[in-house]
Design a protein that fits this description.
The structure is a single chain. This protein has eight helices and ten strands. With 389 residues, the protein is an alpha+beta fold. The protein has two domains: 219 residues, no CATH class; 148 residues, Sulfite Oxidase, Chain A, domain 2, CATH 3.90.420.10. Strand 1 and strand 2 form a beta hairpin. The radius of gyration is 27 Å and the shape is elongated.
Length: 389
């Protein structure tokens, strides 16, 4: 009796869920999820760190809310799809390399390396992304920088993998899930019928789990789904009915009794007390706070339009504006409003939220609220506006 262990081969895993057809369909769905996640993530990165050629519109006011919601929810949908995809193809790990054929061996090694990079990078993106939405960072690197860099690894490895597997995937996708007999009726008996049925069940289960995961979390950004999203990590609860990420205590904010808003522009400067700011013409607008973690909530904000304030003081209104907070040690203690946002009449120095004076956690004495902007750039506890050259 031969007791030596035998190395498995792909033929040892004959289940229908391991077929090329299942792998190709899951790969297609996963590619769509990754594509949406990458494009919307790239937009978010460029909004926060804009290159010279990039501009982001102020309308519609919910645009960033939508794109960042799609970014996070497509990432959530990708988790079960990736697990299903890996299950469908793991028997390929046992394909023996063609050691005696150098060209084929080189191709085999390159394919394995690209798959390893793709899987590791994809898991890194998805897992760290889930930690990010929970605002938990049990690592020593800066999440945005690492997330952005590894996203390019995912895309590069994915494109290489698609190029290698395209002929196999195209052939598999042309195969109907249900084999047809003469007369157009589906086979329901025999091995082919059972395999077709099991393939459909596996694919529907994978798609269903992805759909349930999205539905269970989509309430963070889709208000009418909040009651059916038990895993939503933010809701409408929070100070004055709107969630926050950073409290005044965490930011070590101490508003001086003689607080005055400082406005600086080339060739001039001015200051306004809170009473003087409150006495200026006010505007009320319904605008969302849309956070990079994917949650968003709308509120009614009342304050002074930045463009009107600058115009009243004689400052230029067609240039970017640097907004500086009383917070001194935060990563987002200051932000730069692009000229388009600075000139938009809906960009406010908000003094009130939902009819109430801003609470300290929402940015008292005043905060920035602009349409179609990430929450991290909606600077709270504003101390200074500087019109840039």
């Amino acid at each position: 009796m031969n007791l030596e262990p035998r190395v498995p081969t792909p033929e040892d895993f004959p289940g229908p869920s391991h077929s090329p057809l299942v792998a190709a369909r899951l790969g297609l769905w996963l590619g769509v999820a990754f594509g949406l996640c990458f494009v919307t993530g790239l937009l978010s990165h460029f909004i926060q760190h804009p290159p010279g050629w990039f501009t982001w519109p102020t309308r519609p006011v919910n645009l960033y809310r939508v794109t960042q919601g799609v970014h996070v929810l497509s990432g959530i949908a990708a988790v079960p799809l990736l697990l299903g995809k890996l299950w469908s193809v793991y028997p390929r790990l046992f394909v023996r390399p063609p050691l005696r054929q150098p060209i084929r061996l080189t191709a085999h090694v390159l394919e394995r390396v690209s798959v390893l990079v793709l899987v590791c990078a994809a898991f890194f993106e998805l897992v760290t992304g889930l930690f990010n939405v929970a605002q938990s960072y049990p690592w020593g690197f800066f999440f945005p920088t690492a997330h952005y860099a590894v996203a390019w690894l995912v895309v590069g490895a994915l494109l290489l993998h698609v190029a290698v597997k395209l002929p196999v995937a195209r052939a598999a996708l042309r195969t109907p899930l249900r084999r047809q007999q003469d007369g157009g009726e589906a086979a329901t008996t025999g091995r082919d019928g059972r395999d077709s049925s099991e393939r459909r069940v596996f694919l529907r289960t994978s798609a269903g789990v992805a759909g349930v995961a999205v539905l269970a979390t989509a309430g963070v950004t889709v208000p009418w789904l909040r009651r059916v999203s038990p895993l939503a990590w933010r809701s409408a609860s929070g100070p004055q009915g709107v969630p926050i990420n950073r409290t005044a205590a965490a930011a070590r904010i101490a508003v001086p009794p003689d607080w005055r808003l400082e406005i600086i522009w080339p060739g001039g400067r001015g200051t306004l007390s809170l009473a003087e700011l409150t006495a200026l013409p006010q505007r009320t607008a319904e605008l969302p706070i849309a956070c990079v973690e994917g949650w968003s909530a709308s509120a009614s904000w009342t304050g002074v339009p930045v463009v009107q304030l600058l115009r009243r003081l004689g400052a230029p209104t067609d240039r970017p504006v640097r907004i500086t907070s009383l917070e001194t040690d935060g990563l987002y203690a200051a932000s730069t409003l692009p000229a388009a946002h600075a000139g938009d009449p809906l960009t406010l120095l908000a003094l009130r939220i939902n009819g109430e004076e801003l609470s300290p956690d929402h940015g008292y004495p005043c905060r920035l609220i602009a349409p179609s902007r990430p929450g991290v750039l909606q600077t709270k506890w504003v101390a200074r506006l500087e019109v840039l050259r």
